[in-house]
Amino acid sequence: MSNDELYAAAVKAAEKSYSNYSHFTVGAALLTSDGKVFTGCNIENASYSLTICAERTAVFKAVSEGYTDFEAIAIAGSGNGDFSKPCFPCGACLQVLSEFCGDSFRIILSDGEHSLSDFLPKRFNEECMK
Hints:
Blueprint: H1 3-14, E1 25-32, E2 37-41, H2 54-64, E3 70-78, H3 91-100, E4 106-109, E5 112-115, H4 116-119
């Protein structure tokens, strides 16, 4: 699957966003190593701390279906329907991705391809606990 196709899937996932409070829709499309795509959207709650991001929604859906080997994720976000500006993943989503993905994991945004290590060069992992 091309980066453009994966990004288009993220934009489509954003259409399902439940963002009644921020009005900022986000979609994510997570590509597994065997070519399956799991999508997610942000789901807000009146108690903001209970909101979940699109990226974590996609990861949790994939893991709950038995997939833990990922190649790339595309993320699209917008407050006005224009998905041309990059929507960067938050720290919580980066940490969740780092549980399953290495430094070279691809993150596709509207401005192109990045790696996990571009956004999270030093991450908390099992080595930190030793």
